[in-house]
Amino acid sequence: MANQLHRGDIPAGLFAGVTSVAIDSETMGLSLTRDPLCLVQISAGDGDAHIVQLDRATYDCPNLKALLTDPAVLKIFHFGRFDIAMFERYLAVTTTPVWCTKIASKLARTYTDRHGLKDVCKELLGVDLSKAQQSSDWGAATLSADQLAYAASDVLHLHGLMTKLQAMLEREGRHDLARACFDFLPQRAKLDLAGWEDIDIFAHS
């Protein structure tokens, strides 16, 4: 297992031939309108993580953008709504197709209200993730080894989670509902960016 840091963009052809990648991002905070996108982490499910430290002056990363929009590559997230919105805003791309382990967990694991990545990994994979670096300065010019390890951990287990959750969704007869939710995620992200982040447009009032 290796964590590889790339500055500005991923190398061309890095994920040639893969059909799915796990993706996460790190930002300076949780505000879509205030906090810039700093890092994008990617794994092909092979135990390696590729961490892209973006050039925040230009966000010039054509290879990463091509991957995010490649219709032949499934992008796996945990709470993809936020990451997809960040990519829409800062990279000017609509990320598709997508799969979200947090949505899948909420649809399949109705016996609990604990759907954070740490909780889901612990139950389904027996993996105890450290969240020590969750609140961290991701805009720093030089990232520490602990920061890189934390960033990598957020994508290394998503393929395994997807496999477990997919089986649960199929068992409970909710696979098609989940798929429809995943397909809607890029539009949900657009609504967030357009000002409907905290408004339920489907509510009666």
Could you outline the blueprint of secondary structure elements for this entry?
Elements: E1 3-7, E2 20-27, E3 37-43, E4 49-53, H1 62-69, E5 74-77, H2 80-91, E6 98-100, H3 101-108, H4 117-125, H5 145-156, H6 158-171, H7 175-196
Parallel strand pairs: 1-4, 2-5, 5-6
Antiparallel strand pairs: 2-3, 3-4
Can you offer a commentary on this structure?
With 205 residues, this protein is of the alpha/beta class. The protein has a single domain, classed as Ribonuclease H-like superfamily/Ribonuclease H (Nucleotidyltransferase, domain 5, 2-Layer Sandwich), CATH 3.30.420.10. The chain has helices at 62-69, 80-91, 101-108, 117-125, 145-156, 158-171, 175-196; strands at 3-7, 20-27, 37-43, 49-53, 74-77, 98-100. Strands 1-4-3-2-5-6 form a six-stranded mixed sheet, sandwiched between helices.
Give a short synopsis of this structure.
By secondary structure, this protein is an alpha/beta fold. The protein has helices spanning 62-69, 80-91, 101-108, 117-125, 145-156, 158-171, 175-196, and strands spanning 3-7, 20-27, 37-43, 49-53, 74-77, 98-100.
